[in-house]
Amino acid sequence: MATPGAFTTDNIPTSLLYTELMDSIERHNEKSRSYKDLFCGAPTKKSTVQVRERGVDFQLSASDTTKPDMQHVPRRTRSLREPQRWVLNESITRRAWEEGMSSDEVREHGREALDADFRIVTDSILQEALTDGGWYDGTLIPPPFKQNTFLVTHSHYLARAAGGVPALSDFTLAKTHILEHGYTDVSRMVAFINNQQAEEIENITEWGTYVGPATSLMETLQAMGMTPSFRAGGVAVVADDWIPENYMLMVSLQVKPMMWRIPEGSGGVENLMAFTSTSQGETPSLQYQWIEEYARWTSSTIIHPGAGVAYYLDGAEWTDSTGWSHSG
Questions:
Q1: What sign does the dihedral 39-41-42-45 (CA atoms) show?
Q2: 3 state DSSP class of 143
Q3: Where are the domains of the chain?
Q4: Distance between CA atoms of 152 and 135, rounded to whole angstroms?
Q5: Within 10 A of 141 (CB to CB), how many other CB atoms are there?
Q6: Quick one: which of 203, 260, 194, 208 has its CA closest to 44?
Q7: What would the DSSP string read from start to end of 309-326?
Q8: Strands of 273-278's sheet in order across
Q9: pLDDT tens for each residue of 203-255
């Protein structure tokens, strides 16, 4: 016979709630992580990644015995950020349990932890995308494409004192910066802005009402809970308050522009890890009845610097975004 302490006030056994929690964590880990799945491919344990660049060319054959020069596919090495480990401890005290806890109150602990995990993963991706140094930033010479050549000063961190409200010309300028590096499928481009900026656009422009036709990108975004609000310059625009006010992020999804790095050790460290104990006939301690501890590793790095543009719309010079709840 189970002890009285093994039940909630609505007579649900803690063993059942424990099983529910483990199942919810498993489903959470299988679920799309929105920006992480959009921007990152398969994770890696390597500390660097080599990204192919254009560079091999045919040579004119002077005779039937011409032997062309040996060429190798040019690659640029990108260092990946060191993974960071984040931890969370949620607990229900023994006294709170004795005073009465319903099953829904216990379940809320698990839901809050999963929401927190979603936030930290999203923070890792978007802070990388809106911080100087990932896209072309005036320190690398991009490879030529078609008739386009570039100076070392070429940058994908744009800025304009627009009072936070992007004009159509801002969208087209960002699009051009991506197109000229070979990401020419506009149907695979998407821009992300804050809802405040989206409202301003929709209030003053007619082009802010056109959503556009159904495409594979549209289907992908909608499957992740992102519904484009309109199109600008042919680019689907998603309004999302994960994007800070006065910023815009435009990305080509012809490639996965980022890489997610996990620690070198074995185990499921790409996902949220849970360490949970609960009283099932025995109390873990006099102080705690239910203990949930979680660990999450994060590491995102831009590896295709020409595939995205970050735009600051409230000043003449680029300023890194702030307000992220997770940074280290």
A1: negative
A2: coil
A3: 1-49+88-263+291-319
A4: 13
A5: 12
A6: 260
A7: EEEE-BSSS-------S-
A8: 84-93, 288-298, 273-278
A9: 777 666 666 666 777 777 777 777 778 888 889 999 999 999 999 999 999 99
